[in-house]
Amino acid sequence: MKKIGILLSGRGSNFEAIARNVQAGKIPAEIAIVISNKEGAGGLAIAREMGIKALCIPSKGKEREAFEQELVAALREAQVDLVCLAGFMRVLTSYFIREFQGRILNIHPALLPSFAGVDAQKQALEYGAKFSGCTVHFVDEGVDTGAVVCQAAVPIQDEDTVETLAARILKEEHRIYTEAINLVLGDRIRVEGRRVILKK
After folding, report:
1. Which is catalytic among the residues 9, 34, 80, 108?
2. Residue 146 host element (H or E)
3. The domain 106-200 is classified under which CATH number: 3.40.50.170, 3.60.120.10, 3.40.50.620, 3.10.200.10?
4. pLDDT 10s digits, 144-159
């Protein structure tokens, strides 16, 4: 059975969606560990309620690499095959990325490469875009620049606010994150340059 490690900083809605899909047999894997850099993260409480190993490794006041060494040690001890970022509000260094090369996924609430970085929904509304959406991508050393695994488009309505758009995008996030995890863990894709291609 393949093992997933989840990193989060907040409420963990994407983590919870992944965990429910694991429970329902829609993801043939187990969540071996959930780690947050913030003790008060809602996702930790959800993980503990679900009986999943949950750990806080505080980032505050630590050198970046010292913090990441602790993260890597915990993930290695849990023997994870895949690391999923679910609202983990830190940019990972090249050290961490090298340790799990090609095995880190992130979800972003926009159709990358549009509206990378923070406040993606606000960026889309202010730009006047007609569509936004979400992207699951491999994590590389840039911010939201890794190869795209899955995307889903969401129309922007004239009356949308940041909150209403974010809520509609979140539904799609929950769907495509599971899809992307299954593609990666099932060894059903190959990466050629920037392109993620389904194996025949």
Report:
1. 108
2. none
3. 3.40.50.170
4. 999 999 999 999 999 9
